């Protein structure tokens, strides 16, 4: 990037079309304010399907900071638009974004890289609504959504399957991912993709204040308690760091990613659930919290993401 950071015009993409729209609006506004505090000119863009026209209507931004979450903004679609417009953008490219959003395909990549992923597989949603396709306890979730949107936990001994996924209003695809439930700790590891290789920051242990680690637990104030660094056996802590870095590389991620794990401390079993290529940047989000622990302020993190932006084609 040849221009001084303070002279840049940055378009911050936020909102979008997915079920994670409200979280994205919060992430985007936080990032926009952090850039403005550093003297950067910011255009806030609510990214709809007319994104190309909207960006073309601006004085062409030097960089796009992508703060979208979920479908359209995180699955390679927006990335493709930005590459067509030849505008450098933050975070992962088209292929890594599309791959990470598809839980079924990403599992195959992770396993090939030696990273343990959950079992289970894709099932027709009506079949899942009608009967237990695997033995409880298990988790049902969309194959291509994030932030625990549309996720259901079926407990051991449950008589009733997840009828909700068979309802006419279900908006997350005709196939759903069904995985065995992994008891134990919910862990997260942020990775920053520096030029000399990805670097995991630390491990956070997440405890929901009420039951399951769902959408509300992730984003509502007080919805969960974060302990960092997580209190774990040293070998498990190190394994989480190294597996998050390996996943970042295997998926082809760029910029910042976050890997989510479950650790069964009874069976000593560490499993990587998914890789997020557009982690949240809200006041309750894990990545800025881990960055602060590592000595990087929110402003520093946002600046790094802008300076790391590129246009692969």
UniProtKB/TrEMBL annotation:
ATP-grasp domain ranges (all copies): 107-307
Family under the similarity heading: Belongs to the D-alanine--D-alanine ligase family.
Taxonomic lineage from the root: Bacteria, Pseudomonadati, Pseudomonadota, Alphaproteobacteria, Caulobacterales
Top-level taxonomic group: Bacteria
Active site feature: 20, 147, 285
Required cofactor(s): Mn(2+); Mg(2+)
Record has Glycosyltransferase as a keyword: no
Keywords of this entry: ATP-binding, Cell shape, Cell wall biogenesis/degradation, Cytoplasm, Ligase, Magnesium, Manganese, Metal-binding, Nucleotide-binding, Peptidoglycan synthesis
Keyword Cell wall biogenesis/degradation tagged: yes
Function: Cell wall formation.
Gene Ontology biological process terms from the UniProt entry: cell wall organization; peptidoglycan biosynthetic process; regulation of cell shape
Organism: Brevundimonas aurantiaca
UniProt-recorded name of the protein: D-alanine--D-alanine ligase
């Amino acid at each position: 990037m040849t221009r001084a950071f303070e002279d840049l015009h940055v378009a911050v993409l936020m909102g979008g079309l997915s079920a994670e729209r409200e979280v994205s609006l919060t992430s985007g506004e936080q990032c926009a304010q952090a850039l403005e505090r550093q003297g950067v000119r910011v255009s806030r863009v609510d990214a709809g399907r007319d994104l190309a026209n909207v960006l073309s209507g601006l004085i062409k931004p030097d960089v796009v900071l992508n703060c979208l979450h979920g479908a359209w903004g995180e699955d390679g679609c927006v990335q493709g638009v930005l590459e067509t417009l030849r505008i450098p953008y933050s975070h992962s490219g088209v292929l890594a974004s599309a791959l990470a959003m598809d839980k079924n395909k990403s599992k195959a990549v992770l396993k090939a890289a030696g990273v343990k992923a959950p079992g289970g597989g894709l099932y027709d949603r009506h079949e899942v609504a009608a009967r237990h396709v695997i033995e409880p306890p298990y988790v049902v979730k969309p194959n291509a959504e994030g932030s625990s949107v549309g996720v259901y936990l079926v407990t051991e001994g449950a008589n009733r399957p997840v009828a909700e996924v068979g309802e006419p209003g279900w908006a997350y695809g005709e196939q759903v991912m069904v995985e065995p439930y992994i008891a134990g700790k919910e862990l997260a590891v942020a990775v920053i993709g520096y030029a000399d290789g990805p670097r995991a920051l630390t491990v956070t242990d997440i405890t929901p204040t009420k039951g399951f680690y769902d959408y509300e637990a992730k984003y509502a104030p007080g919805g969960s308690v974060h302990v960092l660094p997580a209190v774990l056996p040293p070998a498990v802590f190190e394994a989480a760091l190294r597996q998050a870095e390996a996943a970042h590389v295997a998926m082809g991620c760029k910029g910042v990613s976050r890997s989510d794990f479950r650790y069964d401390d009874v069976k000593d079993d560490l499993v990587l659930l998914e890789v997020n290529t557009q982690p949240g940047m809200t006041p309750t989000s894990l990545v800025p919290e881990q960055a602060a622990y590592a000595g990087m302020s929110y402003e520093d993190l946002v600046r790094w993401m802008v300076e790391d932006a590129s246009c692969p084609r």
